[in-house]
Amino acid sequence: MNSSLILSVTTFVYGLAAFLYMAAWVFNKKQINNWASWAVVVGIAGNTAGFVLRWVESYQLGIGRIPLSNLYESLVFFSLMIALIYFVIEGKYGQRVIGAFAMPLAFLSMAYASLSPNISDRIQPLLPALKSNWLTVHVVTCFIGYAAFAIAFGLALMYLIKKDDDGHENTVLSRVPHQRVLDELNHQMVLFGFLFLSAGIISGAVWANSAWGRYWGWDPKETWSLITWFVYATLLHVRFMRGWRGRRIAVFSMIGFAAVLITYFGVNYLPGLHSYGAG
Amino acid sequence: MNNNKQKNSMFDSLWDVFASVKLTVVVLILLATTSVVGTLIPQNADPVVYMRTYGQFVYRLLEVLDIFDMYYSWWFQTLIGILTVNITVCTIKRWPAIWKLVTIKKMQAGSIDNKQPLSKFSDPRNPRELDPLYQAYFEKKYSNLKFKSEEEGFRIVADKGRWTRIGVPVVHFSIVVILVGALIGSFFGFDGFVNISEGESTDYIRLRNSNDTLSLGFEVRCDDFDVSFYDSGAPKEFRSSLVILENGQKVAEKDIIVNDPLRYKGIKFYQSSYGALPPKNYQISFSSTDLDQSVVHELSIGQSVELPDGEGRFAVREYVQDYMFRGNRVGAAILGVLDKPGKEPMEVALPLRFPTFDKMRSGDWVISVEGYDKAYYTGLQVTRDPGILFVYAGFTLLLLGCWVAFFMSHQKIVVDVKSSSDSSRIRVFGSTNRNHLGFENAAHKLGEKLGKL
To answer: Are residues B232 and A124, on separate chains, in Cβ contact within 8 Å?
Structure first.
């Protein structure tokens, strides 16, 4: 039994959860939702166990470091954060249709980590530049932020497919939460994500200053994280100050998530110092 | 008079431009979109590479627009400048109203006549019984209160979290602080580098942007440099033992590694790179091919030694970083000269990595490098940034401000209690400046709590 195996199994559990939420939503079977919630709990447990076990394994290999230092490990942590944040929302608002949009993202992230031939799951020792306590702070804050934005993306997507609340007939779309709820939740996730993205950028800057003697160098990953920050900052301003709501905010949230994806994955194809996240 | 007025109106309209959120949005979008360009086009690369990639015409065009160093170009810096003024003006403009809201003593009762209650319920007790219970509860939970007796009951107006309204100005202020810190750093700080060979010292560095040199006012010596590797071959640690000397006296010392610089008089020395230097001393062995005889001599460049049998001399002439042998790279090597009586002097190559290389020569003696003392130079990043405290203070304020602005709110509650026959009818009204959904839930819970008092 090793961490990679547990995490591979977790991938399928997340996939199952996503599938069950969708089935419950589309076929209007409330009972299935309970199974889906259990699948999420099992998935989170497996994901956490895999994360901790990998940490232990690194000590057994004599490397001894928190598993947050390459693409595989970041994807695993990303999934865990998506599942956790979603689960908190489910507990708080009880809108389980959201699971049909949030859990596929946790599944995709895990599947990419487990199944892509380009991503190595070998535990490698840390390069000198990564040996810092800021590594943990930086990666954890960034990925909490990314996960919140991912769920905001799911909520925005739901907002856009949901038609105006008309009639009382029980259709697939009528079971999607009210647009007002989706709009507010999307906004909450953006706020949450923005705080953690800021913390991620700041911890990265402080770390860069201790490793390279500069807190900002316009390296492509730094720049893209700032672009992402600008996009969400713009969203907050048009919402707070210009009163934008609903559809336009949903579109904005999706543009923001596209920027997140470029910051996370796209930058690996650009030249720069942040190459650790690439493989 | 007239002139003055015109000036004023010009100032006013300029003020209005910079006080507008439209400008903020436009500048943020411009910053976001233009920043993309610099991530696609490598910054500060060799002009030759640009020429080859983009061709003459596009190269000239991009150069005119400062695209190759765009984040420091006049237009990008101007955008950041406009954003800074915009943030400052907006904050100044809104501050009085915010401060008034935070500090004002009087509670606004507010009309509730046309508003929808967030929660309503009835209580079997009459208003006179409820009055003290409610008062005690609200005094505990809310900072600002107002009780008002009415004809058939009473009304409580309460609010909390007024101070959280300063969250937004704090965030905006923090960004200005960060930018001021960056400005201080770029005017009064520097960013340079220096390479120091093991055992040597320097008192000046080279600046990164101008390539000028800068005198430090003290000496830095590198006593030792070490690099260690993992089994996989990946680097594990770079370590330089640095000593700071003032007038020849040791005043500070530290082994620096990546992520742990040395700091002296506001100047920081970071482990940044390293390189190999030609080794100074070599252990060179001479083995006879017929007899089983072997001798090792310690030699440095320029020295020579007599062969063990006395039939000639071997001299170490030079170190070659990348020796080519019949078109093959064999890496670092030393070149020597073998001088035998009655024969032409002969060049002998001794690659450091291949000790048996000299067997190919088929001479009486096989000469090889047994070992050598590795020598390195360390590459240090040297910086001074007097603005860093501002930047870090700004970072802290930004995070605190965001936390307060996003997750704390100013909440106003109005509880209206009226008697109806022998019981009370209670309605809870309220408003908040954010998270309306959460606030409504909280208002429901408040209703439930009041019912159980």
So the answer is: yes
State what percent of residues in chain B have pLDDT above 70: 96
Pick the residue of A202, A207, A240 with the most B CBs within 10 A to test the interface with B by mutation.
Answer: A202
Q: In this predicted structure, what is the pLDDT of residue A164?
A: 62
What is the C-alpha to C-alpha distance for residues B136 and B126, in angstroms, rounded to an integer?
A: 17
Residue B223 identity (one-letter amino acid): D
Kindly report, residue by residue over A66-90, the tens digit of the pLDDT: 999 889 999 999 999 999 999 999 9
| Chain B environment of A270 (Cβ under 8 Å) | 39-40
pLDDT of B188 reads: 94
φ, ψ of residue B268 to 5 degrees: the values are: -110, 140
Q: A159-184 as b/e, with b when 16 or more CB fall inside 10 Å?
A: bbebeeeeeeeeeeeebbbebebbbb
Can you spell out the DSSP letters for B221-258? EEEEEEEEE-TTS-EEEEEEEEEEEETTEEEEEEEEET
Q: Could you state, in chain order, the average pLDDT of each consecutive group of 10 residues for chain B (453 residues)?
A: 68 89 94 93 88 90 92 94 95 92 72 78 87 89 84 87 92 96 94 93 90 92 92 89 94 94 94 88 84 83 85 88 85 88 87 85 84 88 95 97 93 88 87 81 87 83
Distance CA B178, CA B172 (A): 10
The per-residue DSSP string of A198-212 comes to HHHHHHHHHHHHHHH
Rounded to whole angstroms, how far apart are CA atoms A156 and A256? 11
pTM of the model: 0.87
B259/A211 touch (CB, cutoff 8 Å), yes or no:
yes
B281 beta partners: B300
Q: Residue B111's pLDDT is what?
A: 64
pLDDT digits (tens, 9 = 90+) for B428-445: 988 888 777 778 888 888
| Locus of tokens 């996009």 | A231
| Helix (H/G/I), strand (E/B), else coil: B270 | strand
Integer Cα distance of B327 and B318 in angstroms:
20
Chain B residue whose CA is closest to A189: B406
- Does position A50 have pLDDT exceeding 70, yes or no? yes
Closest listed residue to residue B109, CA positions, set B153, B154, B139, B146: B146
Residue identified by tokens 């507008």 is: B20
B206: how many CB neighbours lie within 10 A of its CB? Answer: 14
Adjacent-strand bridge partners of B196: B378
CB B434 within 8 A of CB B409: yes
User: What is the residue extent of each domain of chain B?
Assistant: 2-100, 104-161+409-451, 172-278+377-399, 282-373
Residues 6+ apart with CB under 8 A from B12: none
CATH number of B172-278+377-399: 2.60.98
pLDDT (0 to 100) of residue A279: 43
- H or E element, residue A188: helix A179-212
Contact residues, chain B, for A185 at CB < 8 Å? 437
Q: What is the ipTM of this complex?
A: 0.93
CATH class of B104-161+409-451: alpha beta
